[in-house]
Design brief:
Residues 4-329 form the FAD/NAD(P)-binding domain. With 484 residues, the protein is α/β, with parallel strands linked by helices. The protein is built from 15 helices and 24 strands.
């Protein structure tokens, strides 16, 4: 008789959801976590980053209040107060993810490292635990690049950035993806010098270039300096001198340029946390991208084991490092592992992703380039700029647009948004794509006025305007007007 029905490794978003649901269904559950409950999202990612961004947005709003006829002095940044806000946000959410709460749910929480000692056995905290099912939800961590000189200089990742007791004087960020861009804007708005170094031809390389152009312009206006298409060949220690009162770091570029800063943030990607699990002993196949699973998130080599969240690498689909994907995985796993429902598969056709800058950049489904690459014929693109949206005009925030990618049959393939709080509109498009709703459903939707979401409706309506104003329609109206 196994010790546990389900053993979950990792108390991040995915692991906590699986543990809570499994225990709620009456199963005997163990949850193993070597670090802080809540994982990266609560402690080092989503929550602290959005809290820091909120502080930066408040400072930016104070500086821009003149656009409403309100004159305010330059905001004074109290870094200790900013840190208290960030840590306070974590503290308010932490009880939901706490040991006490999960113990109360009937989960046995083991605060230790875990490693497999057999295909059906895990060692943790000096105990050997046998299981019917194991769920690996160990997550991912920041990639530390093999960069000459890195071992001789101080550097930061998202796990250490929020612990700084003083604001960076000049923050150099390696990587222009979502984390790099969010932290660039937050620190720039809080009074820090910021330089983003990106090896790709442009920042946010996965996103629609038309929307990225607007986002980039907004960050430049905040004072962020971008160096795109550059390769950092090494880093060096910057010793204190008359110009630099504290030690720092120098990034040396391939062309010989030298960029000096006080702090270096590594934001070049994420890697699954596989080390220490001894997956080979468990006969669990894994690669550089994570644990190889089927579309049902079950290990392809050990049928007792499932993987969810950042560490899962479903065949033919690939990993996705988003907290909302972890929650999606948890739901799929419950249907697949606990209810044994067939044909339960993960899919990302309607997956939203958001860069939480200001304005936010959101993408749901396929970009225009992705749609064409995947062979969709006669793709139509409809745009509606915020300069034509009444709410945006009223708030003097007219930068951005809605961009819809539409199939020949009138189905929505993807939506790109650059707008304040664009992420709040993402669910509407995700529902449309997931349920296969025609674009006419959005065009006919009654939305409250005035809202930014009306830009989405107007973009959808513009798709039908040529047909509405066609010669045939005009002739039809000419005939109908004669009716009594």
């Amino acid at each position: 008789m196994p010790d546990f029905d389900v053993v979950v490794i990792g108390a991040g978003a995915a692991g906590l959801s699986v543990a809570a649901i499994s225990a709620g269904l009456g199963l005997k559950v163990a949850l193993i976590e070597r670090g802080r409950m809540g994982g990266d999202c609560l402690n080092y990612g989503c929550v602290p980053s959005k809290a820091l961004l909120a502080a930066g947005h408040a400072a930016a709003e104070a500086r821009a209040a003149h656009r409403y006829g309100i004159r305010l002095p330059e905001p004074e940044i109290d870094w200790a107060g900013v840190r208290a806000h960030v840590q306070g946000a974590i503290a308010r959410i932490a009880p939901t993810d706490s040991v006490e709460r999960f113990t109360g749910l009937g989960v046995e929480v083991i605060q230790a490292s875990a490693c497999f000692t057999a295909p059906d056995r895990i060692e943790a905290g000096g105990r050997s635990l046998s299981f019917r099912r194991a769920v690996i939800a160990a997550g991912s961590s920041a990639v530390v690049p093999d960069l000459p000189g890195l071992d001789g200089v101080p550097w930061l990742t998202n796990e250490t950035l929020f612990g700084l007791e003083e604001p960076p004087g000049h923050l150099i960020i390696l990587g222009g993806g979502p984390i790099g861009l969010e932290m660039a804007q937050a620190h720039a708005r809080l009074g820090c010098l910021v330089t983003v170094l990106e090896a790709a031809p442009r920042v946010a390389i996965r996103e629609d270039p038309e929307l990225v152009e607007g986002l980039r312009a907004a960050l430049v206006a905040d004072g962020v300096e971008f160096r795109e298409g550059v390769k950092v060949t090494r880093v060096e220690q910057l010793e204190p001198n008359s110009k630099a009162a504290v030690a720092g770091v120098i990034a040396v570029l391939e062309d010989g340029s030298r960029i000096a800063g006080t702090h270096l943030l590594l934001a070049v990607g994420r890697a699954p946390r596989l080390a220490g699990l001894d997956l080979a002993t468990a006969q669990v196949e894994a690669g550089p991208r994570g644990i190889v699973t089927g579309a049902d998130l079950r290990s392809v080599s050990n049928k007792r084991v499932w993987a969810v969240g950042d560490i899962a690498d479903p065949r033919g689909i690939g990993p996705r490092a988003f907290t909302h994907v972890a929650s999606q995985h948890a739901g799929i796993l419950v249907r697949s592992m606990l209810f044994r429902l067939p044909f339960t598969k993960v899919g990302y056709a309607a997956l939203p992703r958001v860069t939480y800058t200001d304005p936010e950049l959101a993408q749901i489904g396929l970009t225009e380039a992705e749609a064409r690459e995947q062979g969709h014929e006669e793709v139509t693109v409809q745009r509606w700029t915020l300069a034509e949206n009444d709410r945006a005009i009223a708030e003097a925030r007219t930068e951005g647009m809605v961009k819809l990618v539409i199939s020949r049959s009138g189905k929505l393939l993807g939506a790109g948004l650059l707008a304040p709080r664009a992420g709040e509109m993402a669910g509407m498009f995700g529902l449309m794509i997931d349920r296969g709703l025609p674009l006419s459903a959005l065009a006919g939707l009654v939305l409250p006025y005035p809202t930014l979401a009306e830009a989405a409706k107007r973009a959808a309506g513009a798709h039908y305007t040529p047909k509405l104003l066609s010669p045939f329609t005009k002739r039809l109206i000419g005939l109908l007007k004669r009716l009594p």
